[in-house]
Design a protein that fits this description.
The complex is a heterotrimer of chains A (265), B (223) and C (386). Chain A is of the alpha/beta class and 265 residues long. Chain A contains twelve helices and ten strands. Chain A folds into two domains: 108 residues, D-Maltodextrin-Binding Protein, domain 2; 111 residues, Periplasmic binding protein-like II (D-Maltodextrin-Binding Protein, domain 2). The N and C termini of chain B lie far apart (47 Å). With 223 residues, chain B is mainly alpha-helical. Chain C contains ten helices and 21 strands. In chain C, strands 7-8-9-3-10-11 form a six-stranded mixed sheet, sandwiched between helices. At the A-B interface, α1, β2 and α8 of A face α1, α10 and α11 of B.
């Protein structure tokens, strides 16, 4: 083989060798893995930070669609704590023995209509301008989370149906894979607005770019957000679970737009 | 902020995929190049499936095939105490399967391009089958093999749909850099996302440029 | 000498029969040190035969024995792989390993020797075929002739029991070809093994080979020295394949043993041939005579004696090709069986031989050769050869 190949092969061999060493010596990660619905993006990050300050322990949070996590947990995903945006997912898992008990409600969620800066559509609680914009052609695209597996998407659909706007809006919908992606779409300027989680709209990153308005809770079934410890949960996960339910956790959640369970939204 | 863990994870995944696929693809590619077996087209078509199927579909099938409900998954669980999916090993297996056509096809073409009378000349010179492969065919097919390996590495670095389904974005375990970028975008952290995307692009370009350089040098040797 | 007896004494014996993929019916032997040319038009099965001997293809049925070792015997399920037969094969395309130097190409064929002497042997071989100094060159840096020599050296490095050359001179220009042919002719004295040379060029075969085997559509028709094949072909088909164009149909009139003559009836005339009593009087025969046994009479000198089959006819064609003029002469007005011969152009001019002119010529009786009549008569056209 020509000499020209040697430097390439040496580099290659080096990468291979270190990969194998790396694979063998992965540090044992004691930090528990937490699966959290996307609407908790900012809220739970703050809670985890507070938890670390108080106990010195880390948690590894992965945000995504509640529905996807539900499927992955059924397939044996190594999460120790699951915070769903819809309690039905949790109850199903509990019924099939994946969890420790049925967990607990940690919040009631709310949806908002949000419109980015410069949008021809205005955000108002009654969706009146949305209705008008549909009629006069100001609205081209509207973003919501995917109703099939994102709880916030399902509630968005219910609310739109309640307002009699679903049929007219359906052809103009852009579906986000989870509520975070819907927020991306709604605020990026490629759509004229969307319906997303209240908790996301409140965050500085998002509110800087947009205006929003709460949609009446009576327009949709409640977003009963439930969390549960999974069978393989360790002590650290249990501690975190308790922390979220405790006063400090609850306060942070409330600040981010979540109604405490038992309270009125 | 750069997620070095994720980058290192992606590089390791790519390198190990290449390492595992290299001998497999060479043997399979060579066999396909010379065999005249009757089911050959069918075999080639099934090996090409991962290119044709959408990554999420692939990911779903792999998840079902290796997940906790499957016999492979259960076997793994009993041997190692945890699932095969949502681990680096699971990702590696998925990555190897998904990259088969990227590795095999260029290598097969490279072996096909070797004039058959060279192989015959090797036989008439008394070379054993092994020596014929090692000394005559491999050096001639090497540029194609390199292409296959580079494509595999680059493809793995960028793989998203399958990794998401089978890996689950577990930090340090299955959160590759492409997942990490997606994650940062979702968190409205465009700075980090942009930084990581830039690094990924740089690495990919350097890898590809380097291997094309080597390929051209080799190619000229016996044009 | 039967074939079996030949193989006991060393050398190669080949017998191949098959219907698929192309029909073959080949049988010949080759002695050590002999050059046997396998000659035939394209597609006649020459290369297939060579590949079968090398072991690259397996015929449906056959037996190949070389130096007492059975390489192939379909009846006894013996089929030694190509890499284990000691064959040296020079491919038409040379098939040099493009990524290895000249020296390395040769070394690949020396792997069965002890490592210590390999390089020396390789260098010696290269010197023998006059390629020393080119050891480090890659094939693409060599001329066509040089590449061919490397291919031959590599084949010889194997110390083969038989050397096979597949149209080795077809890819080079004429000057190089002649030089390479000369080198082969010189080299052959050092070659203790039988050498099989496949070619479609009859002249080349005649120049280089001790014997030629004429093949047509997969059948070996005649294996004999070039001179024999070209003056005494075994059938009219072979006659045509060796470009013997003076082929005529007639019948035997009588034999005159005492005079050593057989008299033929042809177109109302009598032709005298050497005694060939294998044919019965009255039997139809095909007879032929090589062009160089036809002597044109000079204008001013009539023929002498009647052992020479004097004939006269009209020149139908006179084609000048450089120093030679090719004539087609029709005797007795029968266009179907003309005579073909060549004479020097200056002689043609001197004797006023032009189209339409009358011309007298003689045929040497000894050169007249009798063959079994072919089906369909001498109108058996060129199509039979394709």
């Amino acid at each position: 083989m020509s000499a020209l190949q040697r430097p390439g092969r040496r580099l290659f061999a080096l990468i291979i060798a270190s990969s194998l060493i790396g694979a063998a010596n992965l540090p044992a990660r004691a930090a528990p893995k937490v699966a959290a619905a996307s609407d908790l993006q900012f809220a739970l990050t703050e809670v985890a930070e507070a938890f670390r300050r108080e106990t010195g322990d880390d948690v590894l949070v992965t945000f995504g669609s509640s529905g996807n996590f539900y499927r992955q947990i059924r397939q044996g995903a190594p999460f120790e704590l699951y915070l769903s945006a819809d309690e039905q997912f949790v109850l199903d898992l509990a019924a099939d023995g994946f969890t420790i008990g049925e967990g607990a409600l940690y919040a009631i969620g709310r949806i908002v209509i949000i419109t980015p800066e410069g949008s021809p559509v205005a955000a108002d609680s009654g969706l009146t301008d949305l209705r008008a914009a549909l009629a006069d052609g100001r609205l081209d695209k509207f973003a919501i989370p995917n109703p099939e597996h994102a709880p916030y998407g399902g509630r968005a659909r219910e609310a739109l149906r309640h307002a009699g706007l679903w049929e007219a809006l359906a052809p103009r919908l852009v579906l986000g894979e989870n509520v975070s992606q819907a927020a991306q779409f709604a605020t990026s300027g490629s759509t004229q607005g969307g319906i997303i989680a209240y908790s996301l709209a409140l965050s500085k990153n998002v509110s800087a770019l947009a205006s929003f308005a709460l949609i009446p809770a009576s327009w949709h079934s409640p977003l009963r957000q439930r969390m549960v410890l999974l069978k393989q949960a360790g002590d650290s996960a249990k501690a975190f679970y308790g922390f979220i339910r405790g006063p400090r956790g609850r306060a942070i959640l409330e600040r981010h737009g979540f109604t405490p369970p038992g309270g009125t939204p | 902020m750069m997620d070095w863990d994720a980058l290192w994870l992606s590089v390791r995944l790519g390198a190990l995929t290449v390492l595992i696929l290299l001998p497999v693809a060479v043997l399979v590619g060579r066999w396909l190049a010379v065999t005249r077996v009757s089911g050959k087209s069918l075999i080639e078509a099934s090996l090409a499936l991962p290119i044709v199927l959408p990554p999420t579909v692939l990911g779903l099938y792999l998840l079902v095939a290796f997940g906790a409900g499957s016999w492979i998954g259960r076997l793994w669980q009993s041997l190692f105490g945890h699932t095969l999916v949502f681990t680096f090993e699971g990702l590696l297996i998925a990555s190897v399967i998904v990259n088969i056509p990227f590795a095999v096809q260029p290598i097969q073409r490279a072996f096909e391009a070797i004039p058959p009378d060279l192989r015959e000349a090797a036989a008439c010179c008394g070379l054993s089958r092994w020596r014929s492969l090692w000394r005559i065919e491999l050096p001639l097919a090497w540029p194609g093999i390199m292409t296959g390996m580079v494509l595999t590495f680059a493809h793995t670095l960028g793989e998203f749909g399958v990794v998401l389904m089978v890996g689950g974005s577990i930090p340090g375990e299955t959160r590759t850099i492409s997942i990490a970028i997606y994650d940062r975008v979702q968190a409205f952290d465009n700075e980090s996302a942009g930084l990581m995307a830039g690094v990924l692009l740089l690495i990919s370009m350097v890898t590809i440029a380097l291997s094309y350089l080597l390929t051209h040098r080799l190619g000229h040797r016996h044009d | 000498m039967t074939e079996l007896a030949m193989t006991d004494a060393g050398g190669l014996s080949v017998r191949i029969e098959q219907d698929q993929p192309i029909p073959l019916d080949i049988e010949f032997t080759a002695r050590p040190g002999e050059i046997l040319a396998i000659v035939g038009p394209s597609g006649s099965g020459k290369s297939t035969t060579l590949r079968a001997i090398a072991g690259l293809d397996t015929p449906q049925s056959g037996r190949i024995v070389c130096n007492g070792v059975t390489w192939l015997d379909t009846g006894s399920d013996i089929n030694i792989a190509a890499r284990r037969r000691q064959v040296g094969l020079v491919f038409q395309s040379y098939a040099l390993f493009p990524h290895l130097t000249t020296l390395e190409n040769i070394l690949e064929a020396l792997q069965d020797r002890p490592p210590a002497g390999r390089e020396d042997e390789a260098r010696e071989l290269l010197a023998r075929i006059r390629l020393d100094g080119l050891e480090e060159r890659l094939p693409r840096q060599l001329s066509g002739g040089q590449q061919q020599r490397v291919a031959v050296a590599r084949a010889l490095a194997r110390r083969p029991d038989v050397l096979l050359l597949d149209e080795p001179f077809s890819a080079v220009d004429r000057v190089t070809r002649q030089r390479l042919q000369r080198e082969l002719a010189e080299l052959r004295h050092d070659l203790p093994m039988p050498v099989l040379l496949v070619t479609h060029d009859l002249d080349e075969a005649a120049r280089l080979a001790d014997r030629i085997c004429v093949i047509h559509r997969g059948r070996s028709l005649q294996t004999a020295s070039p001179e024999t094949v070209m003056t005494r072909p075994v059938s009219p088909l072979v006659a045509r394949l060796v470009n013997l164009r003076n082929v005529f149909s007639g019948s035997v009139k009588e034999h005159r043993e005492s005079a050593g003559v057989t008299r033929l009836a042809w177109q109302g005339r009598t032709i005298e041939a050497g005694l060939s009593d294998a044919f019965e009087p009255g039997e139809p025969v095909t007879w032929c005579v090589p062009a160089d046994s036809i002597i044109v009479h000079r204008r001013d000198r009539p023929s002498q004696g009647d052992r020479e089959n004097p004939l006269s006819g009209i020149v139908r064609e006179a084609v000048q090709l450089g120093q030679t003029t090719e004539l087609v002469i029709v005797v007795g007005g029968d266009d179907r069986q003309p005579f073909h011969l060549s004479i020097p152009t200056h002689a043609a001019r001197r004797n006023g031989i032009v189209v339409g002119a009358e011309i007298g010529f003689s045929i040497r009786a000894e050169a007249v050769h009798l063959m079994p009549p072919e089906p369909g008569g001498p109108e058996y056209e060129q199509s039979a050869i394709d």
